[in-house]
Amino acid sequence: MKKKGKEISSNKDNTIDTSPVKTDVYKYPRGNRYNIVYAKTPNNNQHFRRSDEELQKIIDSKPKNWTKKDFLGEGKLNNKKLLTRKETDRKTLKFYHTGKRINMKNIFDNSTEESISEFKKGEIDFETLKNRSSTIKWRSNMSNQERKLYDQKVYENLTDEQLEAKKQRQKDYYIKITEKK
């Protein structure tokens, strides 16, 4: 690159009109810390910051189960980079899914038909369904002896009101079972 005179020529066959003095026309600095010259036009490689509204439109256009990692191209659902790390760190953006993905198939596989129907009707929320499912999965991994000891320990700690409610549930269950036959 030629640095003396009024022009700096680059390897790209384009010349940039420069001046060693900053004026109203020559106001964009170029060069390094030892030799600063001023140009009429700004650098062409400047990155323009995308607005929050623009980024939110990108987020809204994609599936709701995408995480920040998916938008960065590092996730399981997408390998194309749509946003930068700095853009995903903005507090004003609303990502619809954060954290670990939940496999609904496992939850429904370990749930009872009654729990699933209650969930579909809206009688119980997702957290309750998930808790019931994990309890069933946990108990099914126990041996019969372990399950029996656990139930005895729980039964010992029940209050009188809980015992009455348990007896009533057992009666209702027995009546329901006998009516089906």
Structure explained in plain terms:
The structure is a single chain. This protein is α+β, with helices and mostly antiparallel strands. It has a domain of 33 residues. 46% of the residues lie in helices and 9% in strands. The protein has 8 helices and 4 strands. It has a 4-stranded antiparallel sheet, with no helix packed on it. A hairpin with a 5-residue loop joins strand 1 and strand 2. It is rod-shaped, with a radius of gyration of 33 Å. The mean pLDDT is 84.
How does the SSE layout of this entry go?
Blueprint: E1 7-9, E2 15-19, E3 28-31, E4 36-39, H1 52-61, H2 68-72, H3 85-88, H4 104-109, H5 113-121, H6 126-140, H7 144-156, H8 160-180
Antiparallel strand pairs: 1-2, 2-4, 3-4
Mean pLDDT: 84
- General form: rod-shaped
Query: Oligomerization state of this entry?
Result: single chain
Indicate the structural class: alpha+beta
- Main-sheet strand order equals 1-2-4-3
From the N-terminal CA to the C-terminal CA, the straight-line distance is 95 Å
Weakly predicted, low-confidence segments: none
How many DSSP H or I helices? 8
- What is the strand tally? 4
Helix content range of the residues, please? 40-55%
Report the major sheet.
Answer: 4 strands, antiparallel
Strand content: 5-15%
Please trace the helix and strand order, writing H or E for each element. Answer: EEEEHHHHHHHH
Q: For the CA atoms, what is the radius of gyration? A: 33 Å
